[in-house]
Amino acid sequence: MSGKRAPRVRVTWAWAGTAARLLLAGVLGYAGLVKIADLTEAGRTVALYRIVPDDSAQLVGGVIPFIEVALALLLIAGLATRAVAVATAAMMVMYIAAIISVWARGMSIDCGCFGSGGNLTSGAERGYVIDIARDLVFLAAAALLIRNPRTRYALDRWVLDAKER
């Protein structure tokens, strides 16, 4: 009877992984494309965090969206899923650390995660807990893909299965 359970569990993980893969692809793709539409604003948003020097902020703000879109395309295709999930997890940890840093320093900014960020007007409060919780969900999705990279409708299945034959 235990032989019958193993394939079912594998199938469930494959679908859960597919959902995680497509969720991350959608989030990264949308976030990256919105930022690419205004790279100057993306650089200004990075500068607001006061983590990198101002002259580097524009470069960082200009590079991150292209990385996000590249990761999204690889996730959509399901190619190099584990490696892409590791890169995505690293980005989520970086984003969470940046948000915690801003919060700890008492700054009040919009994260700019999905487009233009900025200083909030006086009296406005930013829900950093929501931003961190959201990114933790994305980090968990990436962790699921790191552990179980084999997903449905992924190029990895064809590439890896061909090598195993």
Question: How does this structure look, described?
Answer:
The structure is a single chain. The chain is mainly α and 165 residues long. It has one domain. 75% of the residues lie in helices and 2% in strands. It has helices at residues 2-36, 39-48, 54-77, 81-104, 128-147, 155-164, and strands at 109-110, 118-119. The protein has a two-stranded antiparallel ribbon. A hairpin with a 7-residue loop joins β1 and β2 (118-119). α1 crosses α3 (54-77), α2 (39-48) crosses α3 and α3 runs antiparallel to α4 (81-104). The model has no long low-confidence stretch (mean pLDDT 87).
Task: Describe the structure concisely.
With 165 residues, the chain is mainly α. The chain has helices at 2-36, 39-48, 54-77, 81-104, 128-147, 155-164, and strands at residues 109-110, 118-119.
